[in-house]
Specification:
The complex is a heterotrimer of chains A (552), B (161) and C (106). Chain B has 161 residues and is of the alpha/beta class. Chain B has 5 helices and 8 strands; from the N terminus they run ββββαββαβαβαα. Chain C is an alpha+beta fold. Chain C has one domain. Chain C is globular, with a radius of gyration of 13 Å. The chains are: A alpha+beta (552), B alpha/beta (161), C alpha+beta (106). At the A-B interface, helix 1, helix 2, helix 6 and helix 9 of A face helix 2, helix 3 and helix 5 of B.
Chain lengths: 552, 161, 106
């Protein structure tokens, strides 16, 4: 993974000094809250329901065992012993004190971490596929480019006061695990006819109030032009994005209102001009330098077949169950990718205690070349585990309560913090997740249902990504009472789709029943090995609507 | 208001006029509209010329005239409105403007460094602000990842040395 | 007629506070100053002084009602702000003693 050089260190350290002084000036009254707010947001600091909230960046979801230990330390010393992993591969702390935040940032800087631009109307954390670099289906490792984009976007002087936030995602595989089609810019790695690598550039996707699937504005962008092209898109957005209405300020609205063709013309025109005047073209030397950090670890030459694994699978049902959901194919023979579910039955989705973070760090150090990933489904990943080590990894996860065998199943719920924590929320999301989780706890039942991505947002800002859930749940405020609107058929993958609203919202105590009913329709109608979302696509909304509301 | 250039308060020799007032002698700042109306008649005028651009006005239209302009003012209606950063970069990098590029409007210390990097060299600030804060502000982050209007060496340049 | 309380977040730690008599602030809702609708303006003016003094940020008025154990906010968001996360009863105001006699207000 990337390691800071002296320049990266200098920037992050000076940024902390700068922010420390901004906090001092705020407390002393030299800065009003209006003047301070964008500055603290650009350092990841929100003011939430009960306290401040600090969102720390985990660039493209990759972190080292040492960095995870430092996150655990921050949770223990500066917070209340836990953190929350988000749908954008970041971590959030819910209880920091304003004047201690610079100290937290200092401690993070020591392990090459920061909270720069995790909020604010600027370019946010670039997210990538949590299996980057190790997935069997990968064309190229997107982390190289994610790191290049991270550096280019950090303290970019032209793009720090955009009309609104800007989110970029990149995937290196045809199976899109980074939801690129619902980002402001999505980049898909592709190869042209000559076999050269490049990017398909997708612009104007997004969730929130007006969910949209992004449009391809460039089918093939050669690698050297990546940054110049991004600058062109950002400049067009910076100049033409709406600034009069908060809810119409994202680039998706600009693309929609301008029209894809016209928007593409504007970008290509700007790109032409930029390509002539500034040397933003990605020099081969820099690309090679960064790529060197993402070379594969020192894999041992292992047999693709592990007797240790086979024996354990045969002997231990619990291990076999976990293996079924938590272990994915690796491109290197003899290795596997382990996903650690942070969705224990009845737990808070995505939360991890400092102790749990420590366990994961230790396991990564011993069994995964000290590397960990965070997925945008709020789970953790050990990307490089030898097949022989899987049974032992499972045993240690089990002992720590981190071996819930539900990855990808209905209880692997994605949920935003909701009205329990968040100022923007209309309704609570976590208790809904907990209740559904309890309802479907039975593992046989979960496996029978199969792959089902259930996503819950506490408000229309859609931080829970409900629009792209196979089943999505959106919290709404109906005359002061929490209600929940159900959507069906959303999809975050390469077959991206926004879910369809099924009907009037349900009260809090009726949501789990509604979910049961929906799943019941699927089970009754599915054919062959259809997943929920496949059946939905075949039979449509009507059968579900009738079962849910027909009696009324 | 006070004018900061190079970290010190300087006298502002310029007079801004609205679209109705007759042009005084000496350096004068016109709105874009007025400039476009009057540009041909101002050839050979004794006295420097400047143009004021609102945030939604594009500087591209000034490209053919830049050699005649000693000053361009770019507006930040609110400090959160970042359009002038793009205007500034285009003026410096695309159109080669070498005159004074002045930030005006809601111009605050915590954005000085971004402005400086985009090519601004003069700042209309609140009369009570400390001009030396500008010097500190532009030096707060001593390294930069991106090439921009200030033409400083980027981290990339420094890495390849 | 709705009863009003002014709430805000404390600058230094973001904690939820309520305006108490004499423009002071308390973490304890039952000790908040309760006004009527018409009082909102003057209550907010008082709150803005605390903003200028850098004690609190973003004050705003909320509706409250008399409950069996004292004041209760009318809206669920404010109920949660007054107690803490409903999914972590060990955290937030509900876990502490914000209304205890020894508690110090701003």
């Amino acid at each position: 993974m990337y390691r800071y050089d002296e320049f990266d260190h200098t920037l992050v350290n000076e940024r902390v000094v700068q922010f420390r002084d901004q906090v001092r000036r705020r407390v002393a009254g030299d800065l009003t809250e209006d003047e301070f707010k964008p500055l603290r947001l650009m350092n990841g600091l929100y003011l939430q329901l009960h306290a401040y909230m600090l969102r720390v960046a985990i660039p493209y979801g990759v972190l080292s065992a040492d960095q995870m230990r430092r996150l655990a330390h921050v949770a223990r010393v500066y917070d209340k012993g836990y953190g929350h992993f988000t749908t954008r591969q970041n971590i959030q702390y819910n209880w920091p004190l304003l004047e201690e935040v610079p100290d937290i940032l200092d401690e993070l800087a020591q392990v090459e971490m920061h909270a720069i631009q995790t909020s604010g109307n600027c370019i946010r954390n670039v997210t990538a596929d949590q299996f980057a670099g190790v997935a069997a289906d990968e064309i190229d490792d997107p982390r190289v480019y994610a790191e290049i984009i991270r550096q280019w976007s950090t303290l970019h002087p032209e793009f720090s006061f955009l009309p609104r936030k800007f989110k970029i995602a990149i995937t290196g595989a045809p199976n899109d695990r980074a939801a690129v089609k619902v980002h402001d810019i999505g980049l898909r790695m592709v190869r042209n006819e000559a076999g050269e690598p490049g990017f398909e550039v997708i612009v104007g996707g997004g969730q929130g109030r007006t969910p949209m699937i992004g449009h391809v504005v460039r089918g093939f962008l050669p690698v050297p032009h990546l940054l110049t092209y991004l600058e062109a898109v950002l400049r067009v957005y910076n100049l033409l994005g709406r600034r009069d209405n908060l809810y119409k300020a994202r680039i998706k609205i600009l693309v929609h209102q301008t029209g894809v063709e016209e928007f593409t013309c504007l970008v290509e025109e700007e790109f032409e001009l930029m390509a002539r005047e500034t040397p933003q073209v990605l020099p081969g030397g820099e690309l090679a330098r960064i790529r060197a950090y993402f070379q594969p670890p020192a894999y041992r030459a292992l047999s693709p077949v592990s007797d240790v694994l086979a024996t354990a699978l045969g002997r231990d049902d619990g291990f076999a169950r976990w293996h079924q959901t938590s272990v994915a194919a690796h491109k290197q023979p003899g290795y596997a990718i382990v996903t650690i579910s942070l969705k224990p039955i009845g737990g808070v989705p995505g939360d991890a205690t400092a102790d749990e973070m420590g366990v994961v760090a230790d396991l990564a150090e011993r069994y995964s070349f000290s590397e960990i990933r965070v997925s945008h489904e709020q789970n953790l990943v050990l990307p490089d585990v030898a097949l022989d080590d899987l049974p032992q990894v499972w045993r240690e996860l089990e002992a720590a309560g981190l071996a819930t065998p539900n990855v990808g199943l209905v209880t692997d719920i994605i949920a935003c913090p909701g009205l329990d924590y968040c100022n923007l929320a209309n309704a609570r999301s976590i208790p809904i997740a907990q209740e559904i989780s309890h309802r479907f706890a039975d593992l046989d039942r979960q496996h029978d249902i199969g792959e089902l991505k259930l996503k819950i947002s506490g408000c229309i800002n859609a931080c829970g990504h409900h629009h792209v859930g196979h089943i999505g749940i959106l919290g709404v405020d109906k005359k002061g009472v929490e209600h929940y609107q159900v959507t069906l058929g959303g999809d975050a993958s390469e077959t991206a789709a926004v879910g369809d609203i099924v009907g009037p919202a349900f009260s809090g105590d009726a949501v789990s029943d509604a979910v049961e009913t929906v799943i019941g329709v699927y089970l009754g109608q599915r054919q062959a090995s259809e997943r929920f979302v496949d059946t939905y696509r075949r039979i449509g909304l009507k059968p579900f609507k009738e079962k849910l509301y027909g009696a009324r | 208001m006070a004018l900061v250039k190079g970290g010190v308060l300087v006298d502002d020799d310029w007079t801004a006029v609205d679209d109705e007032t007759a042009l005084p002698d000496g350096p004068v700042i016109l709105s874009l509209k007025r400039w476009l109306d009057l540009r041909d008649t101002l050839v050979g005028r004794n006295g420097a010329l400047g143009v004021y651009l609102a945030a939604d006005e594009t500087p591209d239209v000034l490209a053919p005239d830049l050699s005649r302009l000693a000053l361009i003012c770019l507006e930040f209606p609110k400090f959160t409105d970042g359009r002038a950063y793009s205007h500034a970069r285009k003026l410096r990098e695309r159109h080669g403007f070498t005159g004074e590029l002045r930030a005006t409007g809601n111009v605050l210390r915590d954005q000085f460094q971004f402005m400086h990097r985009c090519g601004f060299d003069a700042y209309d600030v609140d009369a009570s602000s400390d001009p030396s804060a500008w010097l500190r502000a532009v030096a707060e982050i001593s390294v930069a990842y991106q090439a921009a209007g200030d033409r400083r060496a980027t981290i990339q340049d420094q890495r390849s040395v | 007629m709705a009863s009003k309380v002014v709430t805000a977040n404390r600058l230094l730690d973001g904690a939820v506070v309520y305006m108490a008599p004499e423009g002071r602030w308390t973490e304890c809702l039952v000790k908040a100053f309760v006004g009527s609708d018409e009082d909102s303006g003057s209550m907010m003016a008082m709150a803005e002084r605390s903003v200028a003094d850098r004690l609190v940020v973003t004050p705003y008025p909320i509706d409250v009602e008399e409950g069996p154990q004292g004041l209760v906010p009318s809206h669920i968001k404010e109920v949660i702000r007054a107690t803490g996360p409903t999914v972590r009863l060990d955290l937030g105001k509900q876990a502490g003693d914000v209304c205890g006699e020894h508690h110090v207000s701003l």
